[in-house]
């Protein structure tokens, strides 16, 4: 059976055909519509699935935001603007006439990374650090979704009560400090206006403020990991995302984590998948639910 997997992110939409061995056969990408209205997203989705739907037997969607009862609810309006509530499964079912499931993208990526683990592990947490900070929790071999779809949104736990306001409305979330957007927002003087990629490049050249910003992100993530260990007793944390997988970042997190008491440390692993984790995880979940 072939799955049409769709990934809906704040900056791009991707769709791929995935076979039963989890190989990506065909893949397309489009920019997320700038207007971020329901109509614009619907038109983009129609364009994306048109060349692929006839060759698929089911659809699996991984999307940013909270997915509850097949609908997308934006947790951070900065990511998805006017899409406060979008009936994702309903729309895609209508477009493709195929059975369809939807799951949060970080939860889906967590499931893909869990299946890629080489060791036999029951409890794993996945963190993605890129524009935002997302997460997914595997407990006793099962993906935690939660009745409202909120489980694993670890980027919105508290890092600093005196920190900046997060796009979700809380003050001092991990995401507001450790994410690419958080790093860029804290940049001053000659780094003001630079994105995280540029700041990390400058850090490698020895720029003191850039080094401090990178360290602040990694330290915030290390503290989150200690909290995660305390709350889930996970055997490992897998870290992905463009910031998470950038040169030297994981080592820095590991150094800060080694400063925590031993009880709160855990094994850190780099994510195996870069761009396709959400697509593959959603396809794996669909394979289990839609036979
Ligand atoms: Zn937040």
Automatic annotation (TrEMBL):
UniProt KW Membrane keyword: no
InterPro entries cross-referenced by the UniProt entry: ATPase_NBD, ROK, ROK_cs
Keyword NAD (UniProt): no
Pfam families in UniProt: ROK (PF00480)
Gene3D superfamilies associated with the record: 3.30.420.40
Alphabetically ordered keywords of this record: Carbohydrate metabolism
Listed name of the protein: ROK family protein
Lineage: Bacteria, Pseudomonadati, Pseudomonadota, Gammaproteobacteria, Enterobacterales
């Amino acid at each position: 059976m072939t799955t049409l997997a769709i990934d809906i992110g704040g900056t791009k939409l991707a769709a791929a055909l995935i076979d039963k061995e989890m190989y990506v056969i065909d893949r397309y990408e489009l920019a997320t519509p700038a207007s971020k209205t329901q109509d614009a997203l619907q038109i983009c989705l129609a364009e994306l699935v048109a060349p692929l739907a006839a060759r698929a037997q089911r659809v699996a969607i991984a999307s940013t935001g909270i997915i509850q009862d097949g609908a997308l609810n934006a947790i951070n309006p900065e990511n998805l603007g006017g899409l406060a509530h979008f009936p994702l499964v309903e729309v895609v079912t209508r477009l493709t006439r195929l059975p369809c499931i939807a799951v949060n993208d970080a939860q889906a990526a967590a499931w893909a990374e869990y299946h890629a683990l080489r060791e036999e592990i029951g409890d794993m947490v996945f963190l993605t650090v890129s524009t935002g900070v997302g997460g997914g929790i595997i407990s006793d071999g099962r993906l935690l979704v939660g009745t409202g779809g909120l489980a694993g949104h670890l980027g919105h736990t508290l890092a600093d009560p005196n920190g900046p306001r997060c796009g979700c409305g809380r003050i001092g979330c991990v995401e507001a400090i450790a994410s690419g957007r958080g790093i860029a927002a804290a940049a001053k003087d000659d780094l003001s206006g630079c994105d995280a990629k540029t700041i990390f490049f400058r850090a490698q050249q020895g720029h003191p403020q850039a080094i401090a910003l990178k360290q602040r992100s990694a330290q915030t993530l290390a503290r989150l990991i200690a909290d995660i260990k305390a709350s889930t007793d996970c055997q490992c944390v897998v870290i992905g995302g463009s910031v998470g997988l950038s040169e030297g970042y994981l080592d820095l997190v590991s150094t800060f984590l080694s400063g925590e008491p031993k009880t709160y440390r855990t094994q850190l692993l780099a994510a195996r998948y870069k761009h396709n984790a959400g697509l593959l995880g959603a396809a794996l979940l669909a394979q289990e639910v839609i036979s």
